[in-house]
Specification:
The protein has 2 domains: 172 residues, no CATH class; 175 residues, Methane Monooxygenase Hydroxylase, Chain G, domain 1 (Up-down Bundle). 76% of the residues lie in helices and 0% in strands. The chain contains 15 helices and no strands. The longest helix is centred in the N-terminal third of the chain and has 32 residues. It comes from Burkholderia pyrrocinia. It is a multi-pass membrane protein. It is found in: Cell membrane. One of its GO terms (molecular function) is transmembrane transporter activity.
Length: 356
């Protein structure tokens, strides 16, 4: 993806940094980059807490692991850090309040009941949209307060350490960020390329076993599920509405569905007239479907929205009427061609957002 590399850098430096600056290479080696980033963040956390002799500094390291350890995508880390900061603030205030109440009342049984009630309230809200915040509030409250008998200074230091851990995790999330948008782009490109391959096989009358076909469609379905899980983070990173991403997802789902229907509508191998019609009369529309799918895949993979430009001239309609037994196949092919073109237009409309 040469277009995405900084053009103002000297050629030699740009070539040396290419493995780090190229989004596709960062996507391919995401696990290695994520592991290195977490390891460096842990070293920084240990170095700061040890060098400054911060009491209970291990909580900074634990927080780094919680915030960034299992989340490689930039959008996810920002969201999780914001939720953790809010949950930590609520829990820390509640924990400090319990410590003060314990010191003033000296009624441990009442404090235990109050903590149990607070944890029950958090658990009630933990099953819902703000579940992570609620659960984290309860955990932080117990970390800060213990069973209510912790020292107020210890409680304050633990709260501060958690906030330091969040800051370190966020700082390292900006170092060689692994955007969910990269994964979404390249997985979508793979899905479109796979759709083109399945369609070319069906249109070209290349027979495969039922097991092979099922594996192809299962792989496409798996990509569809993976794309769905990435959409919330992509929406945050690219400032693209979920409605637009849902529209792209729906078009891809329909294309996969039409391919599945086409596979069951392919004429019998001994139906010479139908197969000749597919080979001759449907050649133009089949080529258009293939070129559009492959062009969209390349646009996503190489960051070239120009490949999404509409073709100057639509495919000519067949001159002859299809054999009766092929009418369903022809109808589904026309719907597939229309949906593929709509998918191309949706990608073109959002190109400025996902081409990062």
């Amino acid at each position: 993806m040469t277009a995405s590399l900084p053009t103002r850098l000297p050629p030699l430096l740009r070539h040396a940094l290419r493995p780090l600056l190229d989004p596709y290479r960062r996507y391919r080696h995401a696990k290695l980059i994520h592991a290195a980033r977490v390891a460096l963040a842990i070293l920084v956390s240990i170095g700061l807490s040890t060098g400054l002799r911060v009491p209970h500094g291990e909580w900074s390291t634990i927080t780094v692991l919680i915030v960034v350890g299992g989340l490689q995508h930039h959008g996810n880390i920002r969201k999780k850090a914001a939720e953790r900061a809010l949950g930590t603030s609520i829990g820390a205030l509640a924990g400090l309040g319990l410590i003060l109440l314990y010191s003033a009342a000296h009624a441990p049984i009442a404090i235990y009941l109050l903590m149990a009630l607070a944890c029950g309230i958090c658990a009630y809200h933990a099953i819902g949209k703000a579940g992570y915040i609620a659960l984290l509030s309860a955990i932080t409250m117990v970390i800060v307060a213990g069973h209510g008998d912790n020292e107020i200074v210890d409680g304050l230091w633990r709260a501060v350490n958690v906030l330091i851990g969040i800051a370190i995790a966020l700082a390292f999330s900006f170092a060689l960020p692994l955007y969910a948008t990269y994964s979404w782009r390249y997985k979508l490109a793979d899905a479109l390329r796979a759709c083109a391959a399945v369609h070319a096989r069906l249109a070209g009358d290349r027979h495969v076993s039922d097991d092979a076909h099922l594996k192809e469609m299962a792989a496409l379905s798996a990509l569809l599920v993976q794309l769905r899980s990435l959409m919330p983070s992509v929406s945050k990173e690219c400032e693209t509405s979920m409605t637009q991403l849902e529209a792209i997802q729906r078009s891809l789902r329909l294309c996969i569905g039409y391919l599945e229907i086409l596979s069951s509508a392919v004429p019998a191998r001994d139906d010479v007239a139908a197969r000749e019609y597919m080979r001759v009369e449907m050649k133009a529309v089949n080529r258009r479907i293939r070129d559009t799918l492959v062009g969209a895949s390349r646009a996503l993979k190489f960051g070239k929205p120009s490949r999404l430009a509409p073709r100057r001239r639509p495919a000519d309609p067949p001159h002859d009427a299809p054999p009766p037994q092929l009418s369903g196949y022809v109808s589904i092919t026309a719907k597939l061609a229309g949906e593929v073109d709509q998918l191309r237009e949706k990608l073109l409309d959002t190109a400025q957002s996902w081409n990062i």
